[in-house]
Please model this.
Amino acid sequence: MNMMDNKIILEFIRKLYPDHDFVPLHEPYFGGNEKKYLQDCIDSTFVSSVGKYVDRFEEMIREFTGAKCAVATVNGTAALHIALLLAGVQRNDLVITQPLTFIATCNAISYCGAEPVFIDIDRHNLGLSADALEAWLAANSVLEGESCYHIGSRQRLAACVPMHTFGHPCQIDRIVEICERYHIPVVEDSAESIGSYYKGRHTGTFGKLGIFSFNGNKTITTGGGGMIITDDDELGKLAKHITTTAKVPHPWEFVHDMTGYNYRLPNVNAALGCAQMEQLPETLANKRETARLYQEFFASLDGITYVSEPRDCVSNYWLNVILLSNLEARNVFLQQSNASKVMTRPAWTLMNKLAMFSKAISGDLEISEDIESRLVNIPSSFRQ
Model:
């Protein structure tokens, strides 16, 4: 691919977003009842973590995903932190995850006092590789009773956190099956995959728990917000209790029965979420049409690969992904696109390359390193 190809790509992106002088990567779309619900929330004076919109937002997530329980939190990181605690992760444990992920995944593991173990990704879905996971566990773990331990460090392998990267579902059924054999609970990092399905089932509903993020740049947004989902009623009740500072219900007394967290989503944010959920089917259809146009366009260009939804999947296409031929081509495209006011970004720096995780246990990360060097996210906003 050459500079002329880059120019053609940028011209095509501008045709998709003709009303933008600066084309953002993913801006929120407020085309429904957002202002109405926010005004109603303000008029009610219930703007903090208690209110009808919090309850309604949780109900809408339950209905949309099919999960039995949903607990709204202040952000996706908080949701993942609590989900890991509920899965039984403790200090000095190990948690298996992928190196190609947002920092929040590893931060949540660190909040528990645990350490990440990095396993390579699948080239086709950009999420945790089921093959690599199975091979690594066979070579590096041992079962003792109902627990699994890393042979070298003797630390407990307490959980596995696969991520549905950029909204593309990973092979979550195989990952869960493998982890069940090794007595390792799965916590799905579905932060980016609201509206994504694997074999007809919504992401986040395969593991012991799952989480979503509703940050300002996600498919739907509450400004800042997250959600824990689970089919375990007891875990759902405990999630709500812990995220509400573990306060024992009482009309006036302040009694707390365990260490809790002030992690509940405010009503004012949930009001935004309710309006966004009402538009979610339209939003997903809009984004899938954008993905179709991108796929058709990039099929005619050499030296560049458009990442389409994997087999047996329906992706929300949160952020569209292209793979350039090499690191140099990636860097040239990033420089030229951003200089032309078309926002693009590379993959996150692999977690194992960050100072705080540089000594973490890792498998062979060949595919992760290759994808990191070539991946670019391109504009993916709702098109009006």
